[in-house]
Specification:
The chain has helices at about 50-65, 85-100, and strands spanning about 5-10, 25, 30-35, 75-80, 105-110, 120-130. The chain has about 130 residues and is α+β, with helices and mostly antiparallel strands. The two termini are about 15 Å apart.
Length: about 130
């Protein structure tokens, strides 16, 4: 029988706790990581530079996955949300190359009008296999 438990995954500090959001949920052999933006442990935006925000978002994902006993090599699906695809498509490809490996995960890229904070330019969510 499949294990149906739902487990909350969090880092210390948990930068999403004040918002009543789990950083990730482990369930049925998968880890679902909430969208991560370019913020530090105190929830402050790290830079106005797109690549710097993107690198921080992926670093945050790495920390959350590590708390769940996984890493970016376990990622099977990525969702990337940006406020300007045309201006940043090459940078998005660069981030994929820096943080993801063959076989590259399935991926959805969406342009949206805004993210949770007005200075955020990118937010990344992933689904990974639990070990």
């Amino acid at each position: 029988m499949t294990d149906q438990r739902i487990e909350k995954i969090a880092t210390t500090p948990d930068w999403y706790e004040p918002y009543k959001i789990s950083q990730a949920i482990k369930a049925n052999g998968l880890i679902h990581v909430s969208g991560q933006a370019g913020i530090d442990e105190q929830g402050r935006t790290v830079s106005q530079d797109f690549l710097t925000q993107g690198r921080q978002a992926f670093a945050n994902i790495q920390r959350v996955l590590a708390a769940a006993g996984a890493d970016l090599g376990d990622v099977v699906k990525v969702g990337i949300f940006v406020t300007d695809v045309a201006a940043n498509l090459d940078k998005i490809k660069q981030l994929r190359e820096e943080f993801l490996r063959e076989p590259y995960p399935a991926d959805t890229l969406l342009q949206i009008s805004s993210l949770a904070q007005p200075d955020w330019q990118i937010e990344v969510e992933v689904t990974a296999l639990a070990r």
